[in-house]
Write a structure and sequence with these properties.
794 residues, mainly alpha, two-stranded antiparallel sheet, antiport
């Protein structure tokens, strides 16, 4: 609750605290980090901490959370990086009119991600999953005056919400198979999911959800467009929050769905393509944020590959790489933001020699880049060693994946060199703004995160025992041992593979400009991308929606009413005719005895009086000489219906019906007073024939259905339930009111909302006053337009 409460208070804090607002608001995620860190001694040995509240106990749905090694690593990363991002964002947007709102969105985004990784219930996870999509939409489209920002926000929302539907469907299937919602309980089900006939469908749902959220090929294109968000959003989004949600979901579901051939083939194949695609895409860019965004796609593909491999070494590499990536990616994005903030550009071809003017920023960039390259004494080095170790079996498939990982890591190393060298070293290049060092709050993040990547790298025992082992054990469901060490064995193949990665990275760096030109030339030759396909699909959907709207909502009320009553007639008689005549209504009745089924009920004289009143109102309506008499005749019909309710023991309904009819007549008279109520609406014969036929068909259908139901055997289960539970559960003696307020509470709320919306629309129309026209100057009424007579062939 703390992040969401802080999100609500953020605008007020920014107004009251001024320049210190970033430090104040950053205290919230920092306090969460400290609290979670206090749980580490209990989690590291392999224990879990769980808490929950009853949500819908009748359905076994609880608002439950739990902390194990995996969720603790993710939650600490989210809150720790989040504290630095909030501090950075407050300075980055200093003086912005909507800084408080932006920081509120950031804190809500962080709260949604924390809820996601700490959720035990699949439904709870789904709620936070969707909340991350909504908050990221608000952040990406924060600068809503720019079309590119709006487009990027909508694109991210559409793609990730498709994944949300996959997640919801998969969660429901899991519940149907296992009988519960809790992830902690699913881990103990063994091969229940893998042996089930619906395993393939469940796998498709969870993989689809993860691929949309973590931008796997071919659903990767939304992530670079999300760079339209301010840089603090990019730093948080790419390092520790939404894009890592899919990776977390796959890691969490590994004990339940992993270990099969389908699991490995899908994740390794798509992850490998995403890795290479993202790395090549980064080499094609010159904008620092776009370069880093494409490397995020590559890194997410790398994480998915490691999860798909599923070995102990691969999972260990995945955990360490996640930590390393969070450290260096957040730091590098903050560096990119500082460069843009202080120089006015992010284009590496327009930057150079900034090391002298921005020395602290350069140190932060260098520390992060070293970890991204994977040099010794950094966390990135151990991540690379572990992932290579998981592919040392020697079979052809492992060698192929190993070659892909080496190539991908080499290109990522080259990109790290580009980000570290091009803007800071070499000759000084004039920039739009005079370059100078960024403010202190914008320097804390890069230095702390870059330093953390080095400190964790020189403490391999702590990294292995307190980070790797708890998280990897939670993913695999079995105890994992750490073998991280600073010792370098020159005879080890792993060291030589790392050296090969570095050498290839240097070669790619030296040919980066040539590769960029070739990639852009290839893009021009192809002429389309997944992004353009998305645009074409969205524009096609919009055009189709417009065409359907124009067809269905043509502005003629007459067509709408005819369509509604025609559908009602089909709905009444269609099932009777299609499903064996009338057998489905009265399966035990003698269908040949129409007189028994449709016998007119015995009625008292006063009941006949009500029927006569209803018929009189109907005839008065049909023969009404003016509009006013027609409106009043409709009221007679409603009053007759209210009397029927009263006579058959429903005084509440009778009173409600009478009030509705009175108000309807008054409102209609008031609204229609703008027309000439003394006129009669002439109608051509074909309208009479069409509408009369529809009225007779619908009336006969309703009457027939009611008579068949009333003459059949009444099933009183529902009414018995209401009678038995209205007092002890709903605490109401009036069953009708209890049904409306409790049993049909949402239905009643919807009806009230509809009436309220219609009332507001009517009020808006009535408030549109026009200047009064003197009666003497009132133009004569135009004759009603009649339809052109149809030509009849002689």
């Amino acid at each position: 609750m703390a992040p969401f409460l802080a999100a609500i208070l953020a605008p007020m804090v920014c107004r009251l605290a001024g320049r210190l607002s970033g430090w104040v608001l950053a205290g919230v995620p920092a306090a969460i980090f400290a609290y979670l860190l206090g749980l580490a001694p209990a989690i590291i040995p392999g224990n879990t901490v769980a808490v929950g509240l009853d949500w819908v106990p009748e359905q076994g749905i609880n608002l439950s959370f739990f902390v194990d090694g995996l969720s603790l690593v993710f939650a600490l990363t989210i809150s720790g990086v989040g504290a630095l991002i909030v501090l950075y964002a407050a300075s980055y947007l200093a003086g912005h009119a909507h800084r408080g709102r932006f920081l509120g969105f950031m804190l809500a985004f962080m709260g949604a991600m924390l809820g996601l990784v700490l959720s035990d219930s699949l439904l709870c996870l789904f709620v936070f999953w969707e909340l991350t999509s909504i908050t990221s939409f608000l952040l990406i489209g924060f600068d809503h005056t720019r079309q590119a920002a709006r487009r990027g926000a909508i694109q991210a929302l559409v793609i990730t919400n498709i994944g949300g539907m996959f997640l919801l469907a998969g969660s429901v299937l899991v519940h149907q198979i296992a009988g519960f919602w809790e992830l902690s309980a699913l881990r103990a089900t063994g091969d229940l999911m893998r042996d089930h006939a619906l395993y393939g469908l469940v796998l498709l749902c969870f993989v689809g959800a993860a691929f949309t959220k973590s931008a796997q090929f071919p659903l990767h294109f939304w992530l670079p467009n999300a760079m339209e968000a301010p840089t603090p959003v990019s730093a948080f989004l790419h390092s520790a929050t939404m894009v890592q949600a899919g990776v977390y979901l796959l890691a969490r579901m590994t004990p339940v769905l992993g270990g099969t051939e389908s699991w490995g083939l899908i994740l390794v194949s798509f992850g490998s393509v995403t890795l290479i695609w993202g790395a090549l895409g980064a080499l094609k860019q010159t904008d620092l944020k776009q370069i880093l965004a494409q490397t995020t796609i590559a890194s997410l593909g790398l994480l998915v590959v490691l999860i798909g491999l599923g070995s102990e070494a691969a999972i260990a590499g995945m955990v360490v790489y996640f930590v390393a990536h969070a450290f260096y990616k957040a730091g590098l994005f903050m560096v990119a933001g500082a460069i843009d903030h202080e120089t006015g550009t992010r284009d590496i071809t327009a930057l150079g020699g900034l090391a002298d003017k921005m020395p602290v920023t350069f140190i932060g960039a260098a520390l992060a880049a070293l970890s991204m390259i994977g040099l010794p004494l950094t966390v990135g080095y151990f991540a690379k060693e572990e992932m290579y170790l998981g592919l040392m079996s020697g079979d052809a498939a492992s060698l192929l994946v190993l070659a892909i990982l080496v190539a991908g890591n080499a290109m990522l190393a080259a990109i790290a060199l580009i980000v570290m060298i091009r803007p800071f070293l070499g000759p000084v290049v004039p920039t739009p703004r005079s370059a100078h060092e960024a403010p202190l709050p914008m320097l804390v993040g890069p230095i702390v995160l870059g330093g953390a990547g080095i400190v964790a790298g020189v403490l391999p025992d702590w990294l292995g025992h307190d980070v790797l082992v708890p998280a990897a054990s939670a993913i695999l469901g079995t105890a994992v041992e750490s073998h991280l060490t600073l010792a370098l064995d020159v005879t080890s193949l792993l060291l030589w593979l790392s050296a090969l990665t570095w050498v290839l990275g240097i070669l790619v760096y030296r040919q980066a400009d040539t590769i960029r030109k070739l990639m852009r030339r290839l893009d021009g030759a192809i002429g389309w991308t997944a992004d353009t396909v998305f645009d074409a699909a969205m524009f096609g959907l919009i055009r189709f929606s417009g065409a359907m709207t124009r067809f269905l909502h043509n502005g003629r009320l007459e067509v709408y009413l005819v369509t509604v009553f025609l559908a009602l007639g089909v709905a009444l008689f269609g099932p009777m005719l299609a499903w064996g005549g009338l057998d489905w209504i009265m399966p035990n009745a003698d269908l040949g005895n129409w007189s028994a089924r449709l016998a007119w009920p015995q009625m008292q004289p006063y009941e006949w009086g009500v029927v006569v009143l209803a018929i009189a109102g109907l005839l008065a309506l049909l023969m009404a000489p003016t509009r006013l008499i027609a409106i009043l005749s409709m009221g007679v019909q409603g009053a007759a219906l209210a009397l029927i309710f009263l006579l058959f023991g429903a005084p509440d309904l009778a009173f409600t019906q009478l009030m509705v009819e009175v108000l309807s007549v008054v409102i209609l008279t008031f609204v229609m007073s703008r027309l000439r109520l003394s006129d009669r609406d002439p109608r051509p014969f074909e309208d009479w024939a069409r509408d009369g036929t529809l009225a007779i068909v619908c009336g006969a259908g309703v009457s027939l259905l009611l008579m068949l139901v009333l003459n059949g055997t009444l099933n009183t289960r529902l009414s018995d339930l209401f009678t038995a539970t209205s007092v002890p559960i709903a605490h109401g003696h009036n069953i009708v009111n209890v049904i409306l307020v409790d049993y049909r509470g949402f239905d009643t709320l919807g009806e009230i909302s509809v009436v309220m919306g219609a009332g507001m629309a009517i009020l808006a129309l009535l408030r549109r006053r026009k200047p009064a026209v003197p009666l003497a100057a009132e133009p004569p009424a135009k004759p009603a337009r009649r339809r052109r007579a149809r030509k009849v062939a002689p």
